[in-house]
TrEMBL record:
Keywords: Membrane, Transmembrane, Transmembrane helix. The keyword Cytoplasm does not apply. The chain crosses the membrane at residues 15-34. This is General stress protein. InterPro entries: Desiccation-related_membrane (IPR052928), YtxH (IPR024623). It comes from Bacillus solimangrovi.
Length: 156
C-alpha cells in the first residue's frame, strides 16, 4: 500500500512540475508570438518579471514567517517535554531510593529474625542435650499414659 502511495505522490509531483513548466512555456510563447512591437513586448516582459519577483519575495517572506512560527512552537514543545521528563525522572529517582531503603530495612529485619531463630534453635539443642535422661524417660512415660487413656473406652 505504501508503494502505491509513493507512486501516486510521484505521479502527482510529476504532474504539478509538468503543469508549471507548460504554463511558463505557454506564457513565454504567447508573449513572444503576440502581435506587439518590441518596445511593448519588453515592457510586458519587464512587468511580468517584476510580478514574478514580487510574488517570489512575498512567498519567501511568508515561508520565513511560518518557519519562525514553527520553530517557536517546536522550541516551546521541546521545553515542555524537557520539563515533564525532568520532573518524572526526579520522581522515579525518589521512588527508587525509597524502594532501596525499604529493601534494606526488610533485609535487616530478616537478618535479625534469622539470628533470633538460630539462637532459639541453639538453646533448644542445648536444653535437649543437657536434659537428664530420667527426665526424658518420665516425659515419654507420661505421653504413653496420655495415649493409653485416649485409646481406652470409657464406661457409660
Amino acid at each position: 500500500m505504501s508503494n502505491e502511495n509513493n507512486n501516486n505522490n510521484i505521479n502527482s509531483k510529476d504532474f504539478l512540475i509538468g503543469t508549471f513548466i507548460g504554463g511558463f512555456l505557454g506564457a513565454a510563447a504567447a508573449l513572444l508570438f503576440a502581435p506587439k512591437s518590441g518596445k511593448e513586448l519588453r515592457q510586458d516582459l519587464n512587468h511580468q518579471a517584476d510580478n514574478v519577483r514580487t510574488k517570489t519575495g512575498e512567498l519567501r517572506d511568508t515561508a520565513v514567517e511560518k518557519g519562525t512560527v514553527i520553530a517557536g512552537v517546536a522550541k516551546e514543545r521541546t521545553e515542555q517535554i524537557k520539563k515533564v521528563v525532568s520532573e518524572q525522572s526526579v520522581g522515579l529517582k525518589e521512588k527508587a531510593k525509597s524502594w532501596k531503603e525499604y529493601k534494606k530495612s526488610c533485609d535487616e529485619a530478616v537478618a535479625i529474625e534469622d539470628e533470633e531463630l538460630t539462637d532459639t534453635i541453639v538453646e533448644i539443642d542445648q536444653e535437649e542435650s543437657t536434659a537428664p535422661v530420667s527426665q526424658l524417660e518420665d516425659e515419654v512415660i507420661e505421653i504413653e499414659n496420655i495415649e493409653e487413656k485416649e485409646i481406652q473406652p470409657t464406661n457409660v
